[in-house]
């Protein structure tokens, strides 16, 4: 029994099992919903998504109710038509979440959403689970910010407690002269602010853990993540870190899944320092971009695992089948990628790699918009990285 399995033992027993044939409702119809529906359809489930965009990525592979996320009438229809409800983003409207909890079966609950929607609540919950986050202080005024900057030194990172993603809602304070401007700018978001010590990390890692309502926990192998302009560019697996660090990262993720009573998936983003310390940066209570590599590289993908967890099935084996590098396809990468797909890929043949393309069916290839990803399967990650460099699709 692994460390993670032991942690999950003995948890609540009265969980509902939703068998294939049933309909899963998804709040949100983006690429994560699409990949949940594709994986779950293979198991025999049906899917219906609620999303305001007609012909949304998930709506192309499942049924779709076209309405706003805060439309209670539409949420009620979703509840009526589905046997179990899940979500593909964390900023679910609190009123809709409460209504769905009442009208339907939402095994993930609303507590985890409440926690992860707010950086301060999230950090406190992680600490309560016995896991370290970067030192931080809540700051409610310029004076408090000045005091916190004096405590942590520069650089340090000011973040909004809610609404930030892909680097939005944060400011790296590099000198004390920036304090006023940083505070005034982020304070416009009208949410609490938190100052974090700047972690001089060697690497960014992430681990996705799954927990079922029965308390079973499994973790996927840690990914080494490389961001460009605050957007995930590469996930490299196995991460190029000592085995000890990989095990520790998985152990921390399992601990968070247990401590926070997660049902479904929790993605745990971590900083690894040069002296081997791990700090949690943030959590996402859903499938995560840094887990897309699991689609071909693991025995069970994160999407199948998510469906298994919310439906109360036993969790799947998360073993890694092959080294892999996941590279994101943004709007600007679409043209060269499609061109390459139309011809025999001699570079891939020469390097002995298998690039598996996943596109999300988004209509407009806007600059920086996530359009898809490629899982480059290879005998070692260097060969996969060589393919990415040689294709010239990602000229960064
Ligand atoms: P976040 O929105 O919190 O995921 O932050 C986006 C990116 O900013 C992270 O992936 C890091 O590269 C960087 N970052 C965030 N917080 C810190 C920190 N406390 N120290 C150093 N870098 C950070």
What's the architecture of the largest domain in CATH terms?
2-Layer Sandwich
CATH topology of the largest domain: D-amino Acid Aminotransferase, Chain A, domain 1
Tally of separate domains: 3
Which class of secondary structure composition applies to the elements?
Answer: alpha+beta
Gyration radius (Cα, Å) is: 21 Å
Give the overall shape, derived from the CA principal axes. Answer: globular
Ligand inventory reads:
adenosine monophosphate
Range of helix content: 25-40%
Question: How far do the termini sit from each other?
Answer: 43 Å
What's the main sheet like? Answer: 9 strands, antiparallel
Strand content: 25-35%
CATH homologous superfamily of the largest domain - what is it?
ATP-grasp fold, B domain
SS element count, helices: 14
What is the tally of beta strands? 17
- What is the CATH level 1 assignment of the largest domain? Alpha Beta
Explain what the structure shows.
The chain has 396 residues and is of the alpha+beta class. The chain has 3 domains: 17-106, Rossmann fold (3-Layer(aba) Sandwich), CATH 3.40.50; 135-197, Dna Ligase, domain 1; 201-391, D-amino Acid Aminotransferase, Chain A, domain 1, CATH 3.30.470. It is 33% helix and 26% strand. It is built from 14 helices and 17 strands. It has helices at residues 3-8, 31-42, 72-81, 94-103, 111-116, 119-128, 142-152, 179-187, 243-259, 294-297, 302-310, 334-341, 346-351, 381-391, and strands at residues 23-27, 46-51, 63-66, 84-87, 136-139, 156-160, 170-173, 193-197, 201-211, 217-219, 223-228, 231-237, 264-273, 278-284, 324-330, 354-359, 370-377. The strands form 3 sheets. Strands 9, 10, 11, 12, 13, 14, 15, 16 and 17 form a 9-stranded antiparallel β-sheet that branches. Helix 2 (31-42) links the parallel strand 1 (23-27) and strand 2. It starts with a helix and ends in a 5-residue tail after the last helix. The model is unreliable at 1-13 (pLDDT under 50). Bound molecules: adenosine monophosphate. Adenosine monophosphate binds next to strand 14. Residues 134, 157, 164, 167, 170, 196, 198-199, 204, 227, 230, 281-282 line the site of adenosine monophosphate.
């Amino acid at each position: 029994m692994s460390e993670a399995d032991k942690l999950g033992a003995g948890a609540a027993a009265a969980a509902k099992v939703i068998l294939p044939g049933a309909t899963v409702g998804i709040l949100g119809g983006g690429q994560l919903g699409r990949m949940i529906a594709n994986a779950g359809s293979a198991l025999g489930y049906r899917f219906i998504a609620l999303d305001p965009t007609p012909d949304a990525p998930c709506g192309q592979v499942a049924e779709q109710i076209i309405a706003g996320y805060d439309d209670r009438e539409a949420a009620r229809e979703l509840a009526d038509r589905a046997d179990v409800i899940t979500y593909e983003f964390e900023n679910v409207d609190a009123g809709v979440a409460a209504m769905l909890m009442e009208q339907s079966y939402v095994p993930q609950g609303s507590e985890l959403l409440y926690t992860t929607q707010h950086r301060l609540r999230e950090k406190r919950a992680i600490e309560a689970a016995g896991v370290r986050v970067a030192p931080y202080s809540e700051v409610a005024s310029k004076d408090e910010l000045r005091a916190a900057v004096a405590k942590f030194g520069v650089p340090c990172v000011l973040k909004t407690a809610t609404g930030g993603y892909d680097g939005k809602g944060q400011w790296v304070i590099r000198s004390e002269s920036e304090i006023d401007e940083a505070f005034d700018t982020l304070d416009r978001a009208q949410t609490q602010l938190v100052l974090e010590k700047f972690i001089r990390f060697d690497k960014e890692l992430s681990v996705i853990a799954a927990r079922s309502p029965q308390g079973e926990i499994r973790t996927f192998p840690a990914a080494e993540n490389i961001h460009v302009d605050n957007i995930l560019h590469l996930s490299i697996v196995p991460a190029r870190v000592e085995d000890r660090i990989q095990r520790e990262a998985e152990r921390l993720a399992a601990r968070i899944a247990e401590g926070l009573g997660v049902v479904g998936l929790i993605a745990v983003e971590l900083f690894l320092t040069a002296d081997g310390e791990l700090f949690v940066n943030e959590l996402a209570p859903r499938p995560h971009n840094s887990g897309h590599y699991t689609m071909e590289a693991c025995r069970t993908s994160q999407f199948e695992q998510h469906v298994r967890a919310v439906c109360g099935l036993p969790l799947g084996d998360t073993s890694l089948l092959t080294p892999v590098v996941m590279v994101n396809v943004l709007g600007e990468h679409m043209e060269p990628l499609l061109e390459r797909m139309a011809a025999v890929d001699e570079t891939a043949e020469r390097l002995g790699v298998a690039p598996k393309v996943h596109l999300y069916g988004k209509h407009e290839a806007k600059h920086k918009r996530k359009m898809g990803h490629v899982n480059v399967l290879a005998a070692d990650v260097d060969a996969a990285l060589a393919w990415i460099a040689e294709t010239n699709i990602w000229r960064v």
